[in-house]
Amino acid sequence: MKLFKILDLRALVIIAGMVVITSCSSNQNKKYGENENPRSDTVLINLMQFSPSSLNLQAGDTITWINKDLVDHTVKDTLGDLFYSDTLKTGHSFSWIVTGKAEYICTLHPTMQGRISINE
Amino acid sequence: MKHLSNSFKSSAILLSAVFIMASCNSQDGSSSDAMSDKTATETVTPPAVETTPAPAALTDPEIASIAVTANQIDIDYAKIAKEKSKNKAVLDFATTMAKDHQAVIDQAVALVTKLGVTPQDNSTTQSLLSGATDTKAMLNSKTGADFDKAYVDNEVAYHKAAIDIVENKLIPSSSNTELKTLLQSALPLFKEHLGHAEMVQKNLNK
User: Fold this and answer.
1) In chain B, which among 177-206 make CB contacts under 8 A with chain A?
2) Contacts of B104 in chain A (CB under 8 A)
3) DSSP B57
4) Minimal CA–CA distance to B22: which of B55, B49, B61, B58?
């Protein structure tokens, strides 16, 4: 009976230790501002506009541009070269996992502009 | 002066239809205002100069013809630019013009095919083609930076005129809903092209 109590106590100590290690490890991997609930947003390209033209997102969110226009478009970040899509034909889309703020244009139609700001 | 005349000729032709309509409307309005200032006993003398008869309203087949022709003309200008220019901004702009205007033509052709309508030649189409012949000759006579400037200046003027006629004449005149929607969809495209052309023009003039 005493032996069982000692074994139980040892098992408890080992389990507690593992919990502490796992917890510490988890905290070490978690970066400041990490996005625990990444969301997805869509920007429609229609009538020569990005709609919405401005979005406030978090790093880790996904943004998808869908071309609903008559003509081809692209999306290119001009602030930090974070993304540059292929040519998007009508009905095609391009997705990017947000890594930072961006100001983007369509390189084929450079008067078309959009912006992504980061919610820290 | 001759350069200016050639450069803006096709644009002037595009605008002429709009001006005629505006002029006719204006004449109607001023006549009515003038009448209100006269006394009932006063005799109104008819003007000695003959007034231009109001143009007949455009039919959908005529609108389709104008739309296809106007887009094809800008594709032709872009082809000349792609052959003659060495300026990257001008070449990129010309490539976009050729692709975008072809896309509009494809949409227009698909629509008239669906509707069973044959685009009908008309005086505006003929005027556009005539003006384009002169403009293409002018562009082909230029080289280097002179060509780039002439091409981009013409693009600015041509798109201003196209926007005017699409907005003020073709859209209001079109009776088929799908044709009207196509023209309405093309309008922001032409406005973007104008902004793009002005951007290139500004950089060329630096």
Assistant:
1) 185-186, 188-189, 191-192, 195-196, 199
2) 70-71
3) P
4) B55
Which residue(s) pair with A116 in the sheet? A55, A102
Count CA within 13 A, CB hemisphere, residue A47: 10
- Burial classification of residue B167, based on how many CB atoms lie within 10 Å of its CB (0-12 exposed, 13-18 middle, 19 or more buried): middle
Q: What's the CA gap between B17 and B19, in Å, rounded?
A: 5
pLDDT in tens, chain B (206 residues): 444 444 445 555 554 444 433 333 333 333 333 333 334 444 555 555 555 666 668 999 999 999 999 999 999 999 999 999 999 999 999 999 999 999 999 999 999 999 999 999 999 999 999 999 999 999 999 999 999 999 999 999 999 999 999 999 999 999 999 999 999 999 999 999 999 999 999 999 88
d(CA B68, CA B116): 16
Residue with token string 């005529």: B62
Alpha-carbon separation of residue A52 from A2, A112, B77 (angstroms) = 70, 12, 34
B132, two tokens: 């384009």
Q: How many CB atoms lie within 10 A of CB B155?
A: 26
Q: A109 touching B, CB under 8 A?
A: yes
Nearest CA in chain B to A47: B188
Q: Which residue has the tokens 């507690």?
A: A16
State whether residue B34 is helix, strand or coil. helix
Rounded to the nearest angstrom, the minimum Cα separation between B103 and chain A is: 6
What is the SS3 assignment for B145?
A: helix
Paired tokens of B160: 């201003």
Rounded to an integer, what distance in angstroms lies between the CA atom of residue A98 and that of residue A55? 11
Q: What contacts B10, CB < 8 A, 6 or more positions away?
A: B73, B128, B131, B132, B134, B135, B154, B158, B161
Under 8 Å CB-to-CB from B15, ≥6 apart: which residues? B161, B164, B165
Instruction: Output the six-digit token pair for A96.
Output: 């990017």
